[in-house]
Amino acid sequence: MNDVPTPIDPEAARRPVREAAPAGAPDPGVDVKRLQKEILAELTYSVGRSPETASPRDWFVATAYAVRDRIVDRWIVDHASKENKPEKRVYYLSLEFLIGRLLFDALNNLNLTEVAREALSGLGVDLDRIRTAEPDAALGNGGLGRLAACFMDSMASIGVPAFGYGIRYDHGLFRQGIRDGWQQEYPEDWLSFGNPWEFAHPEIDYPIGFGGYVEQVSEGGVARHVWRPAETVEAVAFDTPVVGWRGRHVNTLRLWSARAGDQIKLEAFNRGDYVGALADRVRVESISRVLYPSDETPAGQELRLRQEYFFVSGSLQDLVRRHLEEWGDLRSLADHVAIQLNDTHPAIAVPELMRLLMDVHGLDWDEAWKVTLATFSYTNHTLLPEALESWPVPLMERLLPRHMQIIYLINALELDAARKRHPGDDGLLASISLIDESNGRRVRMGQLAFTGSHKINGVSALHTELMKQTVFRDLHRLHPDRIVNKTNGITFRRWLSQANPGLTSILIDAVGPEVLDDPMRLEKLAGMATDSGLHERLIDAKRANKVALAKVISDRLDIQVDPDALFDVQIKRIHEYKRQLLNILETVAIYNAMRAQPMRAWMPRVKIFAGKAAASYHQAKLIIKLANDVARVVNSDPTVRGLLKVAFLPNYNVSLAEIIIPAADLSEQISTAGMEASGTGNMKLALNGALTIGTLDGANVEIKEHVGDDNIFIFGLTAQEVEARKRRGYDAHAAVEASSMLREVLESIRNGVFSPDDPNRYRGLIDGLLAHDTFLVTADFDAYFAAQRRVYKLWRDRAAWMKASVVNTARVGWFSSDRTIAEYADDIWGVTPASR
Ligand code: 26V
């Protein structure tokens, strides 16, 4: 990092005040020299380092500051003046934002990547090197959190004025290590070196109450409720600007951090209890300490409920204040505010808004309810019964006594109305009730979110249909206009332009640079699906990506894989319904077949797995161990050398996804039909030219409709068939009897072929599969194995494979989250995007 240009005049270089460029115009002030000066000034005056001593992280921070400055100019234009206020804003409430790294995101959206590369290279610094110095912001578990991040990018890109609201966890999702094949969880510390993207606003804070009691006071003969919380925490704002494509719009991600209020500190200090005061403070501030690391399984802990209420209350107080400043009257809230609830995690917002409107701002019940219903909408992300959130009534009464009163009243009114329309239908009443009486009394957050929302959406066509038929069947009967479908999408800026620049430049050459603004332009590519020149370029680009992934596999696992082999990837949270086990069984089957006939002309393949298991999910952790056990045996067996490799890459996160996805040939989307709400990895992989092997589940169904039956490998039971099998009581023994291959595979695993150090390790797993195969792994095995053979048949014919791959990329433009957000804006929020 030497070869530094002549010293600069620090004063002149320091945070130059720029005229903000008019929306949409390229920033006139951006050139290499200027950015270089700005980065050096930041390095010197914000980081406090000289170029000679700066580490890659210092350079990253300096560059991030320089880039951030350019975003802030536009941010201020978008947010500064009350006169300039938008007609309507969207507030996206989510306990999770799985963001990843931001440097390339910002550079790419500002069209500054190459300028920055040159500027840094003139300083002897490699942009790609400092890119990896940025920690991943992993404030989410998986699909739901990543969707929130893609949506933030799309709202800023198509010009939907929006705030994302969430929690600024000190510790994001745990880091996964693999020791001796077992998952280990280690704490994650993304903030330990500071976060150059955020602005702390200690002056923006709201009191958040917990516990205590409710008082009724009479004001001019009107009864009013006053909640007297036992303790109060402060929610403090940290803002991150979210810059959209071409820097046209900048929105805000506002994350709340918990701070002990003066009350807590002073009382105990005054009692002379110094240690006790600080201990209280630690306890109170633990609210924003850590992300709940569970996915699709409920977390019954009180701290989780505190987190939910904490960020909901901070966010609602904040937006109510903003609305009053801008428009003066809360009766018009729904005209200017749309609040989207990302799953039920923020569902407590329904009674909280009612409380604020009535108890604090004096609206009556009917007015408040009308505003509430018109303001909220709710997205459901899972139908798995174990993931449907509910809280014990006693816990809610203790922590949120006023909210519980409001919930009871909403419930009574809803049940009354339902009783009038369907007299005597007790089943219906029990199913729509906000209180579940069947296993202890619990508040059902799904019913609460539904009842308080004017629109409820599923995240794929199939999922939305199943919502209507299952969890919300009766609520849907009562409110048939509420459930709508909004099939998920992904931001192509991150998952194509940033992750796969090689493919992106080929696409720009093939269909024109307009594709960056309008992904539907990819369609034009379908007309070139058999173009051999195009195939060659695509094969080269894919190969380069596979070489890069092979290097990661070699560096991290010391496994050598052949970049010319088929890269078969399954990357997602580890969960039984996602059926990584099915993939492992097929791996063992093909391993057995290769050993039995080593001389056959096998096509070389690499099975790549990555994903985290919830720390308490024993079965999922055992499946990780099995993948690693199989990997160890297979990778060290000379008979299959060069033909089959298995790699479980540790610590799957956004950054690792950005390396794996561009290098994939085959995308495994093999969940039990009816169980994956949508999936979004399926979209990312298809966009990057991987072919899908998958069940008719979630958005796979729509991907199949877009790419065509010939360009996807569909297998297995349909959701209806799964339902029917389960109703009849599925017996795995019949499937195993019928398939000698499956029997052999299960026996070898059961008998310790892959676990010689502990031959009984997988006995329980296999016996459990035979006794109650909840996810129908055995039922789909043969069909899956046959589908894999179809894959290899096509893979042998490289021109036919490439044709299918091109068609995949060409036809998935519809899965852009810009399209998804435009649909939300139109159908649910009633906002008109500024740039669409
Ligand atoms: C539940 C819980 C329970 C408490 C602890 C923390 C926690 C975190 C998440 C969840 C529910 C997760 C639901 C989810 O991620 N669903 C996924 O949503 C994706 C975006 O819509 C979709 O593509 C996936 O199919 C769906 O599984």
Automatic annotation (TrEMBL):
PANTHER family (UniProt xref):
GLYCOGEN PHOSPHORYLASE (PTHR11468), GLYCOGEN PHOSPHORYLASE, LIVER FORM (PTHR11468:SF3)
- Which top class of enzyme applies to this chain? transferase
Q: Return the PROSITE patterns for the record.
A: PHOSPHORYLASE (PS00102)
Reactions catalysed according to its record: [(1->4)-alpha-D-glucosyl](n) + phosphate = [(1->4)-alpha-D-glucosyl](n-1) + alpha-D-glucose 1-phosphate
**Which NCBIfam families does this one have?**
P_ylase
Positions carrying N6-(pyridoxal phosphate)lysine are K684
SUPFAM superfamilies listed in its UniProt record: UDP-Glycosyltransferase/glycogen phosphorylase
Keyword Glycosyltransferase in the entry? The reply is yes
State the protein's name: Alpha-1,4 glucan phosphorylase
UniProt KW keywords: Allosteric enzyme, Carbohydrate metabolism, Cytoplasm, Glycosyltransferase, Pyridoxal phosphate, Transferase
E.C. code = 2.4.1.1
Instruction: Note the superkingdom of the native organism.
Output: Bacteria
Functionally, this protein is described as follows: Allosteric enzyme that catalyzes the rate-limiting step in glycogen catabolism, the phosphorolytic cleavage of glycogen to produce glucose-1-phosphate, and plays a central role in maintaining cellular and organismal glucose homeostasis.
Q: Which family does it belong to?
A: Belongs to the glycogen phosphorylase family.
Q: Which Pfam families match?
A: Phosphorylase
Sorted alphabetically, the Gene Ontology BP terms of this entry are: glycogen catabolic process
Q: Name one GO cellular component term.
A: cytoplasm
> Which organism was this protein described from?
Methylopila jiangsuensis
Regions of biased composition (Low complexity) lie at 19-28
Q: What is its main location?
A: cytoplasm
Q: Which cofactor does it need?
A: pyridoxal 5'-phosphate
Q: Which InterPro entries is this protein grouped with?
A: Glycg_phsphrylas (IPR011833), Glyco_trans_35 (IPR000811), Pyridoxal_P_attach_site (IPR035090)
Q: Where in the cell is it found?
A: Cytoplasm
